[in-house]
Amino acid sequence: MNPTDYDVVVVGLGPTGLTLANLLGRRGVSVLVLEREPEYYGLARAVYTDDEGLRVFQTAGAADELAADMNIDSTVQWVRGDGSVLAQFHSTDRPLGWPIVNFLYQPYLENSLERALSRYPHVTVRRGREVTTFDQDAFGVSVEHAESGGTGYGQRASEPDPRTAERVRAQFLVGCDGGRSVVRTNLGIDMTGTSFPERWLVVDLKANDGVDAFRHLPYFNFVCDPELPIVSCPQPGGHHRFEFMLSDDQTKEEMEDAETVRRHISRYVDPDEVEVLRKLVYTFNAVIADRWRVGRILLAGDAAHMTPQFIGQGMNSGVRDADNLSWKLTAILKHGASQRILNTYETERRPHAKAMIDLSVLNKSLVSIDNKLIAGARDLALTTALRVPGLGGWIRGAKMKPSPRFRRGAYLGLPRRGLWGVEGTLAPQPEVRTYDGHHCRFDDVLGLGFSVLGYNIDPRAALNAGDLAALRAIGARFVTVYKVGARPQGVPGDGRATGQDYADIEDHTGALARWFGKARVETGGLLLLRPDRFVFGTAARGHGGELIAELSKQLDTQQTPEADSLVALPEPPSASVSEPYTHLEEAG
User: Fold this and answer.
1) Phi/psi at 440 (5° precision)
2) Which residue of 341, 373, 383, 580 has the smallest Cβ count within 10 Å?
3) pLDDT by residue (tens digit) across 534-574?
4) Percent of the chain at pLDDT above 70?
5) Residue 104: left (phi > 0), alpha (psi -120 to 50), or beta?
6) How far is CA 490 from the centre of its chain?
7) pLDDT tens-place string over residues 63-90
8) Quick one: average pLDDT of 156-165?
9) Contacts within 8 Å (CB) and 24+ apart, 372-377
């Protein structure tokens, strides 16, 4: 077997690559990150993350620092051209332990994630290095990269210097290198979907020092004005973004002119109180790569799918990709799992990414209506729907957002039981109580790998020695979940937690009791969580061995490297969008 320099080479240092490198680094995987641009971009593109994204950042050990720099729990509105409110979307629920609506300034996020990588001596970041070629065999991937002056993030042409070429060897290569992905292009993988002709002017602003320029714009607004659809987005640190839809007769040069920008932003702010950081006319794309994996080479983030900006889910879809990939790569590299588990990466992530794209396109179609009669009908339909019992609450809570729930038969785990089974769904994250009376987030007890939850029972007592050995071999953690007030008491030594891989918690909010009830797990039963907190499966009292046997079977840890590397890859799923991918321009 050829030796390797790194476990994984990650191409691209945007949010997806940064998240993946942090997750792998925290799990002890050696990583080389290659970024073509020698200098950090320094301007915002993504503006939003949700509770799923923050939960992934929690796993990466960075969520608290990131959330401290966010505008959290913001209200999102549809408003008319005169500013009157059509609909508000707001939720203060914390089903996953974090706020659902959070607006960010991307440079803050990326700087924090890049600083976090310094904690891992086994993670190497090299800027100004462009991948030129790569090839793979049964045992790894060879990657050649060379010094690059960068493209100014798509603003100019650039060629790497062949005299500076270096070649490294890794087990896997992951292309997180954006919509113009070099990795995807060199693999010959096309993208399928729609490139929309509508053009928008994005204007990023920063309030002048000592000036409170945006206090009167506290919420995120979709301005549903048929004469000029607008997006108004608050951001932390005195930043704000506006987006203005162009008419057919307006040119890029005209709209990016300083006087035009000044005239547009003056509708909402005093132009003399702000600095224009960026002004750019862009189009957007709703496209998905036809295939996300070729052997040991994978695509993630915008390299695999591009989401229009109208629900803020482009970056978050890449973060979910990183979460899904990181634990599977770790299971292969550290615990001997079969590469076959990577076949579930696309089958799990593609439907959800596509659903986010579809919802974004729908929202775009509704907010950008430029016909007054149709816009009036839209407004009437929306205000009527908000008055319908049940439906109004569903709309205000933004419940139309695709849920973190894998498609039946397309995920790593036991089959879902019934219509509302928990298998293949994301576990909740309530606050829990430790034995010494402190509160913490649920995930902080679970560790970074698989976790076996016992309901009012030590899960280790429900498994035989062979099952325990199999679980410990993959770094699993064992957790007892007690109902509130149900801890052992009265006898010295009763309920004492022992072992580095064990913890016990009390469900003082009742959230886990309700979830176990939904999962049909009673006292003495077990529930097995994957490292990404999706449910692998459950077992009734006395049937834990069957659950662990199925886990071992699906991970296939006995697979030999030679045979595993030569497993035929499945045909890519048929695309659910039909128009050919045509072109790319920078997305806002």
Assistant:
1) -155, 170
2) 373
3) 999 999 999 999 999 999 999 997 654 444 443 333 343 33
4) 92
5) beta
6) 46
7) 999 999 999 999 999 999 999 999 999 8
8) 84
9) 372/226, 374/226, 375/224, 375/226
C-alpha torsion 279→285→290→292, nearest 10: 40
Dist CA 494 CA 504 (whole Å)? 12
93-114 b/e (C-beta count within 10 Å ≥ 16 → b)? ebebbbbbbbbbbbbbbbebbb
d(CA 131, CA 39): 16
Identify the DSSP state of 418.
S
Q: Are 308 and 356 in contact (CB under 8 A)?
A: no
Assess contact for 153 and 39: CB atoms under 8 A.
no
DSSP 416: P
Instruction: Name the range with the highest mean pLDDT among 143-152, 153-162, 397-406, 537-546.
Output: 537-546
Nearest CA-CA partner of 539 in 435, 436, 414, 432: 414
The 10 Å CB-count burial string (b at 16+, else e) for 123-157 is bbbebbbbbbebebeeebbbbbbbbbbbeebeeee
* CB-based contact 554:409 (threshold 8 Å): no
pLDDT at 569: 36
Q: Which among 108, 114, 119 has a CA at the least distance from the CA of 26?
A: 119
Please tell me the distance from the alpha carbon of residue 559 to that of residue 480, in angstroms, as a whole number: 32
> Tell me, what amino acid is at 465?
A
pLDDT value at position 520? 95
Q: Tokens for 402, please give them.
A: 């695709």
Task: With H, G, I as helix, E, B as strand and everything else as coil, classify residue 137.
Answer: strand
Percent helix, strand, coil in the chain, to 5, is 30, 25, 40
Which tokens belong to 462? Answer: 């429900």
| Other beta carbons less than 10 A from residue 305's beta carbon | 28
Give the β-pairing of 220-223 and 76-79: parallel
Quick: pLDDT tens for 293-304: 999 999 999 999
CB-CB contact of 131 with 39 (8 Å): no
Residue pair 283/303 in contact by the 8 Å Cβ criterion: no
Two tokens, residue 480: 């007892």
Instruction: Give the rounded percent of residues in the chain with a pLDDT score beyond 90.
Output: 79
* 23 band by pLDDT with thresholds 50, 70 and 90: very high
Q: Give 47-80 as a DSSP string.
A: -EE-HHHHHHHHHTT-HHHHHTTSEES--EEEE-
* CA distance readout (Å), 120 to 8, 9, 24, 32, 315: 14, 15, 10, 11, 24
Q: What is the pLDDT of residues 502-540, one digit of tens each?
A: 999 999 999 999 999 999 999 999 999 999 999 999 999
Question: Going along 208-248, which residue ranges are E strands?
Answer: 220-223, 230-235, 239-245
Question: Where residue 155 falls among pLDDT bands split at 50, 70, 90?
Answer: low
**CA–CA distance from 12 to each of 118, 130, 136 (Å)?**
17, 9, 19
Backbone CA torsion sign across 462, 464, 468, 471? negative
- Are the C-beta atoms of 150 and 37 separated by less than 8 Å? yes
For residues 82 and 100, give the distance between their C-alpha atoms in angstroms, rounded to a whole number.
28
Tokens, residue 3: 């030796």
Distances (CA, A) of 219 to 79, 85, 399, 546: 11, 11, 19, 51
